[in-house]
Amino acid sequence: MNLSEIETFLMIVKTKNITKTAENLFLSQPTVSHRLKSLENELEVKLIARKKGYKQIELTTQGEEFIPIAERWVSIWQEMQRLKDSQEKLYLTIACTDTLNSAILFDLYRDMLDEEEQIMNLHIKTHYSYEVYGLLERHDIDLGFVYHHLQFKNIVAEPVLKEKMYLVQAEETELKKPVIHTDELDLEREIFVSWEANYQIWHDEWVSKGERPRIQVDTFELLFHLLAKEQMWAIAPISVVDRIRSLRPVYVSEIGNQIQPPERVTYKIKHKYPNEAALKAVQVFEDRLDRYLQGRDWGYVGQ
């Protein structure tokens, strides 16, 4: 039993299809079938039910029972690799949403790169919030940062930021006021970002009023570049606003609506049963993160 066989089995579990598994792993279908057969021979059990004429694969009872074993096997293999590679250095894999990486954590990453004593190797991943939960649950990452608090049995979520929302406009805007009601704005010029579910609800009721936004983006880079166009505007949390105006002049106003947009909450998520090999790296990063966020006026709520 080897890593490639286990990873192939777990991909089959995910896709329920040999063809899709082969495509996702950049393998041929015969290679996928060979790996699965080899794994079944070693275990002396059938993991999938092979039915002619059915494209979607069904797991046997033993196949279902083998899933958590395979996931633990991969996790142990990863810890072994870290143990082999690590001496004094720490290794940490984290995952965040795009704007978290680009706006909130960017300067922290840069500060860590500039340190004379390089004690940590960082692997930084960018995913949607729901994907980060899945990665953490499978021990593919050690630490995650998300905007949505989802219920997962083995994941603990802790708020670290509660950010006020602001109106940010291209510098050449004609509407320059310290406080602006969204009714004063041209909805055709909005660059919409769905920061999280509660914000989406507020926006639907008080800004778009049921109309679909003309343009919606989900990355910091797109938001940043589109805001360069004359008269364009967006609503964004203070960390994103600060990051944008550190790169280009923009006009920032408070939102004058009686019902204010909900604060954007950033959660730090960790596994209840973390990889032992990453515990020290997680602690070091958390300490650095706390000091970093305390020095910014973004609504830090950490301990």
Automatic annotation (TrEMBL):
One of its GO terms (molecular function) is transcription cis-regulatory region binding. Gene3D superfamilies: 3.40.190.290, Winged helix-like DNA-binding domain superfamily/Winged helix DNA-binding domain. SUPFAM superfamilies: Periplasmic binding protein-like II, Winged helix' DNA-binding domain. The keyword Transmembrane helix does not apply. It comes from the Bacteria. InterPro entries: LysR_HTH_N, LysR_subst-bd, WH-like_DNA-bd_sf, WH_DNA-bd_sf. Residues 1-60 form the HTH lysR-type domain. Keywords: DNA-binding, Transcription, Transcription regulation. Coiled coil: none annotated. Signal peptide: none annotated. Belongs to the LysR transcriptional regulatory family. This is LysR family transcriptional regulator. The lineage of its organism: Bacteria, Bacillati, Bacillota, Clostridia, Lachnospirales.
